[in-house]
Amino acid sequence: MKYSTLSVAIGSALLLCSGASVADTEMTFGGYVKADVMFSSYGNGAPDSGQLSRQFYVPGTIYGSEGNGKQVVDFQARESRFNFKTVTDVDGHTLTGFIELDFMTHSDGNERVSNSYSPRIRHAFVSYDNWTIGQTWSTFQNPGALPENLDFVGAADGAVFVRQSMIRYTNGNWQFAVENPETTVTPNGGGTRITSGSGIVPDVVARYNLKTDSGAKVSFSGIVRQLNVDNATIDSTEMAYGASVAGMIPVGGDDIKFSATYGTGLGRYVALNYANGGVINDKGEIEAITSLAGYASYRHWWTDKWRSSFTLSGFKADNEVAFTGGSVNKTAYSGYINLLYSPSKPLTFGVEYMHALNEREDGSDGDLNRIMFSAKYVL
């Protein structure tokens, strides 16, 4: 999209700091407008209006609210987003700035009168040649492998899905990064999640991106991190690791998108933190929790304007029940089927059915069935 007068004004102000001129810079404004209508049925009772599960599928939030009705409908335009990007040639070096906002996850609005919600930062980073500094997708994640679902994340229980601040270096197909560390553990015997920002050791990620002559794009990622809790009652660290392979494989005019992730102590990196990275054992020390997650999605083009995606996704945690207790999350599965229609390239209408099932170690479970209608216009 052509940049506006406001975009030029903002870009010009930014460029004053770099010593470059507007003439040397490409400025773009983008994003999309998306409206959703969701008819949901929760097996154990629906969460209250405005809760996260009413915005999109989040594993662990569908166990239900006792006393609430099971069937609900939600209208929202909160996924709509906008971004601003500049690319400047500075003495032969490429300088890029990018910022993107949307309106998801906040509970600071309501549906009574105005449906007003605060914007939140999704991405905010600057790149200088091979270096990237700021907040964006974790290097451990391959966002290009996410399936084309109407749900905000889609295949959430099987996906690596993290945005955070980092310093990343790219050299050809290789990427290396140090990223923001944050630890989540289960207290001994179960209970409220302990979230800790203790420690000074960043998460370390390496990734290799492969592109074949057939058009396949596959990434191989590895992560090493330190789980760390240091508070009034616990002072413990534990090393954790993980590996992930994800990508897209063309099949004629169609494609398959997939991901498989395994590791110990991955916690918040997988399934939107459905399971924690570790648990406090009977000695007051952290023990890492092993997990396995993945999804596969086949997208078929019926015509050049009609297409469908068929997606299966799953997650399993290997909890030490003697320490975690039975109330912790164990498995999560979801399936999706949709039909999308794009009368012109920037405009898409779609309908999607999804089913999700979550289960705890004690055998209690929750399920969600949802039919979702969406209209999306890419700016």
Provide structural commentary.
- With 379 residues, the chain is mainly beta.
- It has a single domain, classed as Porin (Beta Barrel).
- 5% of the residues lie in helices and 55% in strands.
- The chain is built from two helices and 21 strands.
- The strands form two sheets. Strands 1-3-4-5-6-7-8-11-12-13-14-17-18-19-20-21 form a 16-stranded antiparallel β-barrel. A four-stranded mixed beta sheet has the order 10-9-15-16, with no helix packed on it.
- Strand 13 and strand 14 form a beta hairpin.
- The N and C termini lie close together (7 Å).
- Pfam families: DcaP (PF19577).
- InterPro entries: DcaP.
- This is Porin.
- Keywords: Signal.
Order of helices and strands: HEEEEEEEEEEEEEEEEEEHEEE
Quickly name the level 1 CATH class. Mainly Beta
Helix content: under 10%
Identify low-pLDDT runs. Answer: 1-10
Structural class: mainly beta
Share in β-strands: over 45%
Average pLDDT level: 93
Rg over alpha carbons: 22 Å
Number of distinct beta strands: 21
CA-CA gap between termini:
7 Å
| Total domain units | 1
Write the layout of secondary structure elements.
Elements: H1 5-18, E1 25-42, E2 71-76, E3 81-90, E4 93-102, E5 120-128, E6 131-137, E7 163-171, E8 174-179, E9 183-186, E10 194-196, E11 203-211, E12 217-230, E13 235-251, E14 254-264, E15 278-280, E16 286-288, E17 290-301, E18 306-318, H2 321-324, E19 329-344, E20 347-360, E21 365-378
Parallel strand pairs: 9-15
Antiparallel strand pairs: 1-2, 1-3, 1-21, 3-4, 4-5, 5-6, 6-7, 7-8, 8-11, 9-10, 11-12, 12-13, 13-14, 14-17, 15-16, 17-18, 18-19, 19-20, 20-21
Protein name: Porin
Pfam families: DcaP
Signal peptide: 1-23
